[in-house]
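Lay summary. Proteins are chains of building blocks that fold into shapes, and those shapes determine what they do. In this project we predict the shape from the chain. Here is one chain we studied, written as its sequence of building blocks.
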Amino acid sequence: MRPFAAGRFRPLSLRSKLLLFLAALAFCGTVVLAFAAWEYGRRAADEAYDRLITGSALAIAEAVTVLDGRIDVDLPYAALDMLALAPEDRVFYRVAGPGGETVTGYDDLPLPDRFLPSERPQFFEAEYRGEIVRFCILGRLVADPVVEGWSTIQVGQTRRARDALAETIAVNAVLPILGLSALSLAFGWVGVTYALRPLIRVGADLQARRPTDLRPIATPAPREVQLLLDSLNRFMQRLQMSMDNMQVFIAEAAHQIRTPLTSLQLQAQLALDEDDPEAVRRSLVRIERNAVLAGRVAHQLLSHAMVVHRGDAAVFEAIDLAEVLQQALREAIPVAEHARIEVDFRNEVGRATILGDRVMVREALKNVLDNAVRYGSPDGGPIRVRLHGDGTDGSRCVTVADSGPGLPAAERERVFERFRRGANAQGPGSGLGLAIVRRVIDVHGGSVDLADAPGGGLAVTLRFPRAGGVGPGR
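And here is the predicted shape, written in a compact code that computers can read:
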């Protein structure tokens, strides 16, 4: 058996689907109208021929008399001549007396299920001698001293002429319907082609563009298609912004990585040319410092890329901010111990449930803690970490305060930009830490504030909205 080839069966185009729908609608409409035309033709034929057999029955009823104490009928042949208008049909008749005895005609004609003698004609159909026959039956009241009661007159005719007339009427009605359906399909094909022309123009415009051409589509289109174009233009605008940001980021990242790598290469060459062990050692110290910087920049670049990627497709869940903060502290404590910095942690709310991405939140907290460790007081002042609530809206807050040189108010907004560092920053750094923090906080709908810490230093407060329905201390 041959394997199924992907793409072998192409889906129907929008034009084909619309035309198929219109064709199905026209077919169903034609069938319904044809059935209605046939029913109308049948009723019209029955009404026409019913008048004939009714006239014959009435003419026969007028000829019913009483002679010598019994029912007598002088059958008027003109009554049956009326039915000669349908020579291909067979005609049957019967006249019965008040006692049901046959006076003249076919004595085995079928009777209706219910019949009350009346001068008003009653019609019914029954099978007789191998054919469907339509009958008209009525009564004639006989008032004679000897014979008194209702005489029954019954006239029947086969359906050949009726059905032929009904078929003629139906065909004459269906032919215009078929023509109208064909004309409707032709107009539908033209209308669908005209309506889809804007989409074809848009497709041709996009196909003719270069991959980097993300200009808005200016093709005129009807209102329904314009909604699609507006959405597509907004998408291309966001894509253009993302591409511009990515190009700027790549250029800045290349510059940030190129600088320590160039220094590494120069210091290595100098160390190779030195004969003095002390000079070689100084070169190795500088090589180590630049290697640490290059590694930190690379780590921050990967962290930033990860945060951006997860932020675009974030799936939030209920997480415990206290647990995530403890994990971030454990990962930051080795650095703090190496720097001989004391960490003072206080949890004022217990369990703090928020809706968020655990990895992104942990990355933001680690960057804040890492900045506090690196740029805190050089004499080993404590880093104060506080998990608390906001009484105004129930948000959960993490405040990290160091005892370093702080950050001037004029620089506090700029340090959230990529590759930006404060004027008081000492030692190696990439300038991406707070940019990562801002990105995480924006994705989670919170806020980040920079303020002077009590006693000197910088206090960074991250505010996360609380998960709905979870009370304090949960």
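What the prediction tells us: The radius of gyration is 50 Å.
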